[in-house]
Amino acid sequence: FAIGCEEKDIPSDINTLRINEHYPRKIVYAGTLIYYNGIIEMLDAFAELGDGYQLHIYGYGPLEDEVIKMAKKSTNIIYHGRFNPDKTKDILTQADLLINPRILDPYIENFTFPSKLVDYVIAGKNVLSSRFKTLPKEYRNFLYLIDTVSKDTISNGIKFVFGEPKEQREHRIMEGIDYIRNHQTYDKVAENLIKFMEENVR
Q1: C or N terminus of the chain, fewer CB within 10 Å?
Q2: Helix, strand, coil fractions of the chain, as percent rounded to 5
Q3: Which residues pair with 123 in a beta bridge?
Q4: For residue 14, how far is the Cα from the chain centroid?
Q5: Amino acid 114: pLDDT
């Protein structure tokens, strides 16, 4: 698929990447605040997780009022509002975990791919995502995945990530960055598209 990134945006020396965690754990969601991104389920999960886990939300959309309301109720939910896309890297690299809880609805997952996942992976952080149908099988090697989207699966998924040894989590980060570098830079995507056309268009 055509989602990609610039080569210059990928960390050059992945062997130096190390997990340096905060307490409380800092989990970041950056994207549109709309139902199919699992916003309600995510908010409910953090309302129950408690102060050991902070959810930092960046973005806007139809569910902005709901996010603001939950942020007032739960001290571990922090809403930052809209953000400058040029600041995306700075925002993501401050996290301990990045989250993409897109709901598993055939009308959504069969035809879309959340482009934020590429930004998430090259930020050098662990990523928790739903296992939607258009997710390339290679991503399953380095993302943490949940098979359904609910407050319980999100909560349990987060706890599982932080329960894994740091060495395993660092390995996933490095494998993800390596995959994006070798397969999903804009140059690589263009090469693959040209190759496909040469092989299939007569």
Answers
A1: C
A2: 50, 15, 35
A3: none
A4: 18
A5: 67
Q: Tell me how far apart the alpha carbons of residues 101 and 130 are, in angstroms, rounded to a whole number.
A: 5
d(CA 193, CA 93): 31
Euclidean distance between CA atoms 94 and 14, whole angstroms:
17
What CA–CA distances, in Å, run from 58 to 61, 88, 178?
11, 9, 27
Pairing relationship of beta strands 97-100 and 144-146 according to DSSP bridges: unpaired
d(CA 126, CA 122) in angstroms, rounded, equals 10
CA dihedral 165, 169, 171, 173 (to 10 degrees): -170
Map tokens 């598993």 to a residue: 104
Can you tell me whether residue 53 is helix, strand or coil? strand
How many C-beta atoms lie closer than 10 Å to residue 162's C-beta? Answer: 16
Sequence-separated (6 or more) residues with CB below 8 Å from residue 192: none
Amino acid at site 68: I
